[in-house]
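ARCHIVE CARD
CATEGORY: sequence design from structure
SOURCE FIELD: tokenized fold
FIELD CONTENT:
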């Protein structure tokens, strides 16, 4: 027997999805912030125990371990990355602060500037200049580079970003600067823009390279520690790491550009959603993932969640590498409920896993969304929590919400049959719902999508507890809740294909493209992909190549990527024919009409780069479908007092272990599963399909 294991580390829990033949086995345990690799190894030991194997025997039988990590995100959130310096072209010292004039909220006159990774004293310039055609206008002053290295050394830099003008056309100066930096500052991490993001414009490239330099030491150190622990434990293969693009690749590839793991955790869930949605006959999905720390929203259109490179703002920094589009809100089970400015507020502060919500009994003192769910009866102190990891406790929870109620001036007379503490908990529930619903509306409106036309797919430890009430507010009438939803991002890493997504810059009018230059650029990208895939023991003939171009109208800030041709194995450039310009223009016009509902008649777009997405197929979890079993009303296991939005009442509670395909659960009701709780709100019903997955359907308006 061989195994494939997907892992996703969240702020509160570390999730595991193990593929054993066609069977999917789930596991969760608390994350270990002091050393996240400990939580990973703990979970692998538990999976080995479930299989009756020693850790060594289990890891020896693992065909693949695929890992999604938030280490880069956490580094930016906590601002505890490497002491980073920047060397750039003379005259471009303040590119990072100009930010193209971008401000997150143009109406907020009090919005503070974001904290600079590279303060001005560590942003240094050198005389040199490459022109747009790659010619050298001003030679590199190597002595100046050494002088600047001495200044950075005095400031104790641990990482250096190098970004010079037009290095993506001619990287000679950047390469030489990197050589000098390594000579003068041995042991320092070096990130060069022509490798991290080999395209313009300069702010995008510089920002991405600086962020790469800032997070690289922590990412590489963590992955090396994990690889070492895995090898000691008996794992014999290469560790595969989830990328923000939605693909996975070897740790060795990631070492060259660690920025690619930023936002890789949420990307796994989106890829898993697309895979599941297509199988269930719902290719257009609004995906919502609520875990312990955040609420992530994304969309799958026509069964795909393509990665977009460009204006990707993460934690107030621009990161231009290809990313599956995920919007994040600081709202999760661990989000802290508090009073500020005379208002009840929820988040963005999170209790995380240490100490966690009060009800975890691990020393938490601040009330959270999870504590509110316990007060509302949605969660129970009598039931096992997180797969039996521990049980919840009510000790201290009611007192914490009583304090919120007292501060807000609540009284028993207006508590609608509940206590002041219960009223405060219900208000926290309402507020976090409103925050999440509004965030979804902003996301869909920004993409020109009507949520009423979508099916919602809910996952994460808390997603199914809120999904139906969100769908109700958004006009969505169907919600999918896979049985693997509590560890769906981990499952998504097993769905994701090993992928390399890279691009190179060029500049032509679409009707005057230099086909020989474009072919040379694609061949360079093919060679890089083939090398890394060969190192990972994949055969070149199994690689799928997607040839794409980056195009825009002259003067546009952003470009779109358009696929022109796909093939497998041997190189095939037959599409580079005399009608290439017509094919590229047709692809551009089609996408522009779909996304913006117009094209500029009589104006030709320009090609500003080539892109190659290379991937190979690997075994994926099989998703079942259909409702062939006869519909039968399920029998509740118990009842408890709960408030599902319409006041406290005795509510049916069902156990997932006793439900079978065809079972129907009418709301209001609660379904307790091993790792999550599904809430069937009033006006909704839940159906169990042939695969044991849940489908929530709107029954009536209330």
């Amino acid at each position: 027997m061989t195994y494939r294991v997907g892992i996703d580390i969240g702020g509160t829990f570390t999730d595991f999805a193990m593929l054993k033949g066609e069977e999917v086995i789930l596991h969760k345990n608390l994350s270990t912030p002091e050393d996240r690799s400990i939580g990973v190894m703990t979970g692998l030991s538990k999976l080995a125990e479930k299989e009756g194997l020693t850790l060594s025997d289990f890891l020896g039988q693992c065909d693949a371990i695929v890992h999604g990590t938030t280490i880069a995100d956490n580094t930016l959130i906590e601002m505890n990355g490497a002491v980073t310096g920047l060397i750039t072209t003379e005259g471009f010292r303040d590119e990072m602060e100009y930010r193209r004039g971008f401000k997150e909220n143009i109406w907020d006159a009090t919005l503070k500037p974001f904290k600079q990774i590279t303060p001005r004293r560590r942003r240094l310039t050198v005389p040199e200049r490459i022109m747009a055609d790659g010619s050298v206008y001003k030679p590199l002053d190597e002595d100046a580079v050494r002088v600047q290295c001495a200044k950075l050394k005095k400031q104790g830099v641990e990482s250096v970003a190098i970004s010079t003008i037009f290095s993506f056309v001619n990287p000679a100066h950047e390469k030489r600067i990197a050589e000098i930096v390594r000579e003068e500052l041995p042991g320092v991490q070096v990130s060069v823009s022509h490798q991290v993001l080999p395209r313009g414009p300069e702010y995008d490239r510089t920002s991405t390279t600086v962020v790469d330099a800032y997070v690289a030491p922590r990412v590489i150190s963590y992955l090396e520690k994990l690889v070492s622990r895995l090898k000691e434990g008996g794992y014999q293969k290469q560790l595969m790491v989830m990328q923000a693009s939605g693909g996975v690749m070897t740790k060795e590839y990631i070492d060259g550009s660690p920025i690619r793991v930023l936002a890789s955790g949420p990307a796994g869930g989106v890829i898993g959603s697309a895979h599941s949605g297509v199988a269930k006959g719902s290719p257009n999905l609004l995906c919502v993932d609520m875990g312990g720390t955040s609420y992530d929203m994304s969309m799958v259109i026509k069964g795909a969640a393509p990665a977009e490179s460009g204006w990707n703002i993460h934690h107030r920094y621009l990161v231009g590498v290809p990313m599956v589009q995920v919007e994040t809100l600081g709202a999760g089970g661990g989000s802290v409920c508090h009073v500020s400015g005379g208002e009840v507020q929820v988040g963005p502060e999170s209790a995380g896993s240490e100490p966690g919500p009060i009800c975890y009994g691990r020393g938490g003192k601040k009330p959270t969304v999870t504590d509110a769910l316990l007060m509302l009866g949605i969660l129970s102190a009598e039931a096992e929590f997180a797969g039996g990891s521990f049980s919840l406790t009510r000790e201290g929870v009611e007192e914490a919400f009583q304090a919120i109620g007292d501060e807000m001036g609540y009284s028993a007379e207006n508590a609608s049959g509940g206590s002041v503490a219960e009223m405060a908990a219900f208000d926290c529930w309402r507020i976090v719902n409103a925050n999440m619903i509004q965030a979804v509306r902003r996301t869909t409106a920004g993409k020109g999508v009507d949520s009423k036309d979508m099916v919602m797919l809910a996952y994460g430890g808390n997603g199914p507890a809120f999904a139906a009430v969100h769908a109700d507010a958004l006009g969505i009438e169907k919600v999918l809740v896979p049985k693997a939803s509590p560890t769906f991002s981990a499952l998504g890493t097993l769905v994701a294909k090993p992928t390399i997504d890279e691009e190179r810059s060029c500049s032509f009018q679409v009707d005057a493209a230099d086909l020989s230059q474009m072919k040379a650029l694609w061949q360079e990208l093919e060679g890089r992909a083939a090398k890394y895939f060969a190192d990972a023991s994949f055969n070149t003939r199994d690689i799928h190549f997607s040839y794409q171009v980056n195009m825009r109208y002259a003067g546009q800030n952003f470009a779109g990527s358009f696929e022109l041709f796909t093939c497998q194995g041997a190189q095939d450039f037959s599409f580079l024919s005399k009608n290439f310009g017509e094919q590229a223009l047709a692809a551009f016009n089609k996408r522009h009409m779909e996304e913006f509902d117009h094209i500029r008649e009589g104006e030709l777009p320009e090609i500003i780069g080539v892109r190659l997405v290379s991937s190979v197929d690997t075994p994926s979890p099989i998703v079942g479908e259909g409702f062939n079993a006869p519909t039968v009303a399920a029998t509740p296991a118990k009842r408890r007092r709960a408030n599902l939005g319409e006041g406290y009442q005795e509510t049916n509670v069902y156990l997932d272990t006793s439900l079978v395909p065809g079972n129907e659960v009418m709301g209001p009701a609660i379904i307790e599963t091993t790792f999550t709780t599904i809430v069937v709100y009033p006006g909704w019903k839940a159906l169990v399909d042939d695969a044991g997955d849940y489908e929530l359907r709107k029954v009536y308006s209330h």
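CARD ANNOTATION: The CA atoms of residues 74 and 80 lie 9 Å apart. The first strand starts at residue 3 and ends at 9.
SHELF: design records, drawer C
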